[in-house]
Automatic annotation (TrEMBL):
This is tryptophan--tRNA ligase. The keyword Nucleotide-binding applies. It is found in: Mitochondrion. Its main location: mitochondrion. It comes from Maudiozyma barnettii.
Length: 339
């Protein structure tokens, strides 16, 4: 049977990149769920600790709550998909992490681009958690024997590591236990920062204007799109990510929301002949698409007891799978008392 698994970090309200690159696909999978599929979506609150911040606990608490409310607002239905907090089943995840870390080569982890991007470069300040977190991510997927993982482009390397560790484990213990998890991409797997289109849109960025949150007000969306970096190449708009990364990113966002091909989007914007009209058009599409999410979000954040019930239910159903699988895994490794 298929196990669809993915996670998002509670590092802030989700932005268009998270939505178009991942959460919208999560919703489509949720809406088309077949009886032979199991779907688990997690809030990766253990991963949120990899860049430690002082006096962060109350912020983390808020972020976790907002993350659940956002997923529900985006249309993930907890009756269909399990929604959990990673830390609540954290014992299972971190125990498998240990077994995998005994198989994970340092050289491989050193090549991870997210590590290279996020590390500070000062050995005395470098943390083991940030370095090792791709292995925890592999454990997150493998503890549920995940077969399909819907993520954005920036996660492709971590998914390769996951497949590598599954193979290593199977080969080491001479079993065919872990499946090889497939990466599932959406059509818009990489949304760029609005202010610097050579970088990806990222929650952890300090630049407020670089991203649009799914809960942003119409005014704020118009402001950010208005200030988005474009070019002065031509008053006719077409997709060319190399020469026109800013304009192409805007077209990519429209294509993602409307689920149209780039050809169709180019045709739709062919009657626009100045940057201002293009930006107004893009803002309109975003505002209209996000309106239902925004109103749902207010509803869910005001219903704490419903959020708690979703969490409890998600914990119970994921705990059951994780417990069963970890028992099997320990047996395979030789950590069981059936002498
Ligand atoms: P952080 O900067 O804290 O790492 P993030 O914006 O990268 O935050 P994550 O929680 O790490 O968000 O990622 C959640 C999901 O969103 C992942 O599947 C990731 O691949 C996807 N994603 C993140 N940024 C983008 C983007 N710019 N375009 C497409 N998908 C993205
Ligand atoms: Mg990220």
């Amino acid at each position: 049977d298929a196990v669809i698994f993915s996670m998002i970090q509670p590092t802030g309200v989700i932005h268009l990149g998270n939505f178009l690159g991942a959460i919208n696909t999560w919703k489509q999978i949720n809406d088309k769920k077949r009886p032979d599929q199991k779907i688990i979506y997690g809030i990766a609150d253990l991963h949120a600790l990899t860049i430690p911040k002082k006096d962060y606990s109350s912020q983390l608490k808020t972020n976790r709550m907002e993350a659940i409310a956002t997923l529900l607002s985006c249309g993930i239905n907890p009756q269909v998909s399990t929604i959990n907090f990673q830390s609540m089943v954290g014992g299972y995840h971190t125990e498998l992490f240990w077994y995998l870390s005994c198989l994970a080569p340092l050289g491989y982890l050193n090549r991870m681009t997210q590590w290279k991007d996020k590390k500070s470069g000062d050995q005395t300040k470098e943390r083991l958690g940030l370095f090792a977190y791709p292995v925890l991510q592999a454990a997150d997927i493998m503890i549920y024997k995940g077969t399909h993982v819907p993520v954005g482009d920036d996660q492709s390397q971590h998914l390769e590591l996951t497949r590598y560790l599954s193979e290593r484990f199977n080969a080491m213990y001479n079993v065919d236990y872990f499946p090889s998890a497939k990466t599932l991409y959406s059509k818009s797997k990489k949304i760029a920062s609005l202010s610097n289109p050579s970088k990806k849109m990222s929650k952890s960025s300090e630049d407020r204007l670089s991203m649009i949150y799914v809960t942003d007000s119409p005014e704020s969306i118009r402001e950010k799109i208005k200030k988005a970096k474009t070019d002065s190449i031509s008053d006719t708009f077409y997709f060319d990510p190399v020469e026109r990364p800013g304009v192409s990113n805007l077209l990519e966002i429209v294509s993602g929301f409307q689920q149209k091909t780039m050809k169709e989007v180019e045709k739709d914007v062919s009657q626009l002949h100045d940057y201002r009209s293009l930006k107004e058009y893009v803002s309109d599409v975003i505002i209209e698409s996000l309106a239902p999410i925004r109103s749902n979000y207010t509803k869910y954040t005001n219903d704490k007891s419903y959020l708690e019930s979703v969490i409890q239910q998600g914990y119970e159903s994921s705990q059951e799978i994780a417990h069963k699988n970890l028992t099997d895994i320990k047996k395979i490794i030789g950590l069981s008392n059936d002498f």
